[in-house]
Amino acid sequence: MTTSSRRPDEGEARDAAHWAPIMEKLRVSGVPEEALSLNVEGRRVLGPLQGFGKMWQKTYRVRLSGSAATPTEVIKTWKENFPKFWGAPRGNRFYAPITGIAPGEVAVLNLGAGPMKLSTGVMVLYADDESFTLMTPQGHMLAGWITFSSFEEEGCTVAQAQEYFRGQDPLSEIALALVGHNMQEKLWEQTLRSLAAHFGVEGQPQMLVTCVDPKRQWSEAKNLWHNAAIRSMLYTVSAPARWMARPFKRLKR
Fold first, then answer.
1. pLDDT at position 111 over 60
2. SS3 59
């Protein structure tokens, strides 16, 4: 009879390296100076249980038919080129940390064109060779996470993005109902098309939408205090006052 030298907790310890460390507040580092981290630095992450609106699960898939890429190759490429594949409209920026998509790292998102920029971000909750998960901070329109993965199905490599979220506050829930859901679905479908195109495939993403919980959690309406859209707008309109105050701050030094 043979025996294994592996300790019972070795597998768990190895898996733990793929999860973000426990942190009270987010810290932004390793992003360009122009990245506005207004609603990311010092915020906490929120999952679907801490959100306000209906709970949704959205799954987007694209089959890489004809490509020899393995799931591991797909995820490696996706991590290294996430801002390039990100399907947001022109004028939106995804500032990945210099260290890349790694557990505990924080990326900054600046959304919108012109002087009005909505600042928010995401934290890398989990990352291994075949998947990675991004989680939203306080103030983001969504309270939840999205997992990007790749796997084989019927001899074909599949790339998938799966969201699990609620609208974070009442205003975000209204915005989702009016335009947010449609914009969000187009973003991830375009992301998958760009990823497929990188591997030489003209992909046609498929989407499955499920309302997991139709109830709204009114106890979480207080999340409105952190709403990134409101705070970003106030930051923009107060720019002249900050500019005028700069000389006085220098004198105090």
1. yes
2. strand
The pairing of strands 55-63 and 131-135 is unpaired
How are the residues of the chain apportioned to helix, strand and coil, as percentages rounded to the nearest 5? 35, 25, 40
Cα separation, 4 vs 207, whole angstroms: 44
For the sheet containing 142-153, what is the strand order?
93-95, 106-111, 118-127, 131-135, 142-153, 156-167, 55-63, 206-213
* pLDDT given for residue 112 in this prediction: 79
Strands 142-153 and 93-95: unpaired
Contact status, residue 144 vs residue 47, Cβ threshold 8 Å: yes
Give the pLDDT of residue 3: 37
Cα–Cα distance measured from residue 180 to residue 144, given in angstroms and rounded to the nearest whole number? 15
* Eight-state DSSP code of residue 18: T
* pLDDT reading at 114 higher than 60: no
pLDDT band at 91 (very low <50, low <70, confident <90, very high): confident
Q: Give all domains of the chain, ordered by start, each with its CATH number.
A: 24-213 (3.30.530.20)
One-character DSSP codes across 113-180: SSS--EEEEEEEEEE-SSEEEEEPBTTSSEEEEEEEEEEEETTEEEEEEEEEEEESSHHHHHHIIIII
| Per-residue confidence band for 5, with pLDDT thresholds at 50, 70 and 90 | very low
Cα(138)–Cα(115) distance, integer angstroms: 23
Are 60 and 162 spatial neighbours (Cβ–Cβ below 8 Å)? Answer: yes
Beta strands in the chain (DSSP E): 55-63, 93-95, 106-111, 118-127, 131-135, 142-153, 156-167, 206-213
